[in-house]
Each structure stands twice: as structure tokens, then as C-alpha cells.
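seq:
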Amino acid sequence: MNIRILLITYSVLIFLVSCVSENKKNSINQEYFLTKKEMLEDYKIFKEIYKQANSGLYKYRSKSEIDSVFSSSEKLIDNDLSYREFYTTLWNVIDYTGSCHNNLSYPDSLDKTLSKRKIYFPIPLKYIDNKLYTNIVYKKIPVGSELISVNDISASQFAVKISKYVSTDGFNKSGKYSNIASDWLSFYIYLAIGKQSYFKLKYKEENSSKIQQVEIASCTYKDFYENFKKRHSKEYEDRKSKDYSYTYLDSINTGYLEINTFAMGGPESEGHKKYAFFLDSIFINLKQNNIPNLIVDVRGNGGGNDPNDILLYSYLTQRNFKENTTAFTLFQNIPFTKYYIDDDIDDLPIDLKKEHSIFKEGKYYQNSNFNKNWTPNKNAFKGKFILLIDPFVASAGSLFACLVKSDKSATVIGEETLGGYYGHTGHIPVNYELPNSKLTLSFSIVDIEQDVVELQDEKYGDGVKPDFKVIQSHKDFLENKDTQLDFAIDKIKTI
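struct:
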């Protein structure tokens, strides 16, 4: 009898263990499961990688502030923390350090699994003047309707929650909020509030004070992306489909030069050579035809390759300059190679020893062979010019913009850039995979101080700020009008 009871008990235990294992397996198929021990192990590896490899860790915050946020975040880790919440715990530390090159990515396998589930917000949004608006006609909700709340979270709080998953240089907020309009929106919402089967919206239609309420079903990420491709503002945003272009606004005797990216390739690439020829031909034309005015538009320029940004600046300045005043890394030999996943693991140390060869106070500084002196191009423009910027300008884009603003020879119009005025942490991106969560930790390893003068309206940790802040109005959004360019065209007549 006792033996029989023992056998039955054992069978029940086997069944229960099997169920638990199956449930855990199902959880892994939907969203990775991590124990407290696994999370703490990943967190400590993340912390040490950041301390030993991230040269911008203490750029905007003191060591005591960074140590404090590391410590307080670690205390949040327990067995009740979901995978998504663990991601956010790491992200809060990453975001606090302040670099637009910082990122933390879900593993591809989990991304693919989640993207097929109906858990995502279906409506593309636009952030305008501290308000959220719908960017598509959806069900009975007209385009341009103002959101009042989402799942009983006020629109202002909702914007704060979802915008924090965009990394920016320093203390910048404009880049965070503007990226609400990106195709990452529904994933930011998932990260902020978790998976949802439906969303309860309160909203107001245009020119109406009546608050309406509706429940909309969640969708797959593919469905959201299809909606995003049909967004109302696509016509306006697609105007910048070319890498660069030039036209002549003959009614105001003004050249209009758009540089939408600096990602044309390095100095030996065909892309760079074609771009260099384009620039030279444009500025020769401006000089030979005595064109008095120029509008340079780098809105949306998220950066790219050296020296494409510096080359453009050489046509717009009258001073000798360098790309940066200092640039340093924390290492020459890659730390934590066990978790390093880039294919330059053998080449990167060689390159670092060539370029960052000056060791001083625990840092490896760039030598002068890799930071040459530049002079103004012989065909540099000497007339009146306006620079157009927006919150999507970053990295090499913001480095170019800060050099132009520092000269004080241009009128800068638009909105604060995502990238920093005084410096940034960039140049060489690296990627590490945390062993248990399989999260990919990405950041750049060269901390750069840019060759700019101190300006009264630029505090350390700011992006490049415009002389005239101009944002697209709600009315212009609905009409797909370029508010900033229109302002620039009017302004250049009076400079």
C-alpha cells in the first residue's frame, strides 16, 4: 500500500514537472523566461562592459550619479521581473548615460515570434507641439485627431513613456518625442506598457471640443507597418528620398542644397567620390554665377561616413578647423571578447593601436595623423545662408550642424537636433550579446569633443539649437506643407 502511494505520488510529480516544463517552454516561444540569477548575471556583465568599454559613460553624469543608477536598477531585479521589464531596467541605465549611438536590441528569434502576435498599437502617430495626433484615417477616427488618452493614460504621460526608448545625446528631449512618428512606434508602446489585446482611446476630432471614446483591437507588427506605409505624412516625408540634391530658387536668387545623409561611403569609395564631385560642381556654380543666397537643408540627416560631413563644411566656412579637438577610447584590446559579436575582433585592436596611440590618464587619445587640419575650400560660399535642422539630425549630421552654428555665419532654423552641440560618443560601433537574455548591447567607443566655440544659448548636453525655432503646425501637417522651408524662404529675403 505504501509503495503504491509512493508510485502514485511520484507519477503526479512527474506530471506536474512536465506541465511546468511545457509551460516554461511555451513562455520561451512567446517571450523569453529568465530567472533572477540569469538576469543578475547579465546585468553585471552589462555593467562591466559599459564601465570598461563605453568612453561616454561619464560624459554628462558624474561617476557617483552613474554608480547610483547602476545600483538602484540592480535592486529592481527579482523573480517577478518579466523579460520586457528586464529590458527596460537595462534601458533606463543606458538612456541615462546619454548617447544617440546607444542601443539595446531584442534577439531576432524573439522579435520574429512577437511580431506575429496581435499585441501592437495599430495607428501611426505624430507629435506636434506637445500633443499626439493620429497620422492615418483609422476605422472612424479621422486623420489629425488629437489623442486625449490611451488605456486611461493621459496623452502627455503616454508620450513620455514611449519616447524614452529613443536614445539621444546629453539631455535632449526633442529627438525622443519626434521619433514617435517613426515605424518603431508600436514596439516602443509594447516596451512601455506590455502586450495588449485592445486599446481604449479618447480623442478629439479636428475643430471639435467633443471627447470621443473607442476601443480598437491590437494588431500584428506587420499590420502596423502596413498602416505606417499609408500614413498621411508620407507624401511630405518622401520628399527627401534622394541622398542629396540641389535646385535654384530663382524667384529669390537662392540656391537650395539638400544633404539628407552622409552615408555615401568612406574617402576611397565611389559614393564619396561622386558626392565630392557633386559638391564641387555646385559651389563652383554658386561662385561663378554670384548667387548671393543659399539654404542648406540637413533635416533628417542621421549621420554617416567621414569625411562627408567635414567636406561639406569646408565649403561653408572661412576658418581653419579640425573634426574634433579631442577623441579618446578606453581600450586598445577589446574587453570581454567572450561576448563580443562583431567580425572585426582581430582587426579592431590593430586599428585602435594605430589611431588611438597616446595613452594619458587611463585613456587612449587619437593622434594627429587621424585628425588633420582642414582649410576652407577655394570655392567656399561667402554669401548669406540659412541652415535647416530638425530633431532627426544626429552623429555626423549634428557634427556638421554644430560647426556651422559655431561660426555664427549662418541663420539656423528649425528644431533642436538629437545629436549634441559640444560633442558625442561615436565613430566606432561595437556589439555585445548578453549570454542569458541574448539581448544585443550596441554603443560607440570614441568620445569626441567637437571643434566649436562656447555659445550662450548652448549648454553642455544640449543638441544644436536653432536661432529661430520653427515647428510644423497641425494645420500644415494636415496640408503636408513644409513650414520650416517656407519660413526660411521668407527669412532669407530679410537677412
